[in-house]
Design brief:
single chain; alpha/beta; Rossmann fold; five-stranded parallel β-sheet; 5 strands; globular
Length: about 300
Amino acid sequence: MMDLEALPSRGYLLTEQVNPASQHLDQLTPLELVDLFNQEDAQTLRAIAQAREALAQTITATADRLRQGGRLFYIGAGTSGRLGVLDAAECPPTFCTPPDLVQGILAGGEAALVRSSEGLEDRYEDGVAVVRDRQITAQDVLIGITAGGTTPYVHGALDAAQAVGALTVFMACVPSEQVPCAADIDIRLLVGPELLAGSTRLKAGTATKMALNIISTGVMVQLGKVYGNRMVDVAVTNRKLLDRALRILTDLTGIDRAAAADLLERSGYQVKRALLMHWTGLDALAAQALLDQHNGQLHAAKTAATGA
């Protein structure tokens, strides 16, 4: 028989409460359902706005750690963990980062991406172990993602990471008075109760994805992976990305597509290097050396070489 004393109710959590706006969800027409979702999803934007300072603090602190050789880890279970894995996986093609710079850790590993293994979220000790297994150190950043805020797996990892001096960030969709956390940075995305009670893959998941987009993109901007609003460190690995690289070069230099293709080839298919070669007349090796001198910051390298 189930031990109810060992299973306290979590109905007090914001993410588990019943939304009065959707009490008759099962009786709505499809159009009414879509309209209600649209109305409720507006709360994700308000939640992001309310967390703006914590998000900015996370960007600054994470970029500082990565500049010094650190890594960024996302960790979570279920939807929260999958969103972290997704954001991490998108960094190498978007910003040409090494695969180990931003890593997503999901309770249950790769198998849990396509098959539910939410039972593993209850294992605090597994969270502790993964910090050891990934050799997380004081240089690194660990962002623990848990919509309801109570996931033992995430708390185990945060506690273990904090013990070794890593920067710890807690991201949850419940207020701090419901679930306190002693992480270095505390991000609360308060979207309110879900339309489908307790289904945090909905508003909570949307707000989490938005927050991760902001953090990873903001960090990469700080690291010089962006020039203006162009992804100048894009990995040219397929026809779509080759076309994007050529368009960046033609737009920012004014040369035609054929000349851009030649420049890109001479640069070793590195858009940032190609731009600096065009603006300075340097060859690929010299352009890369100049970028290295300025920590990959294209604006600074261009100004140093041309004064503009």
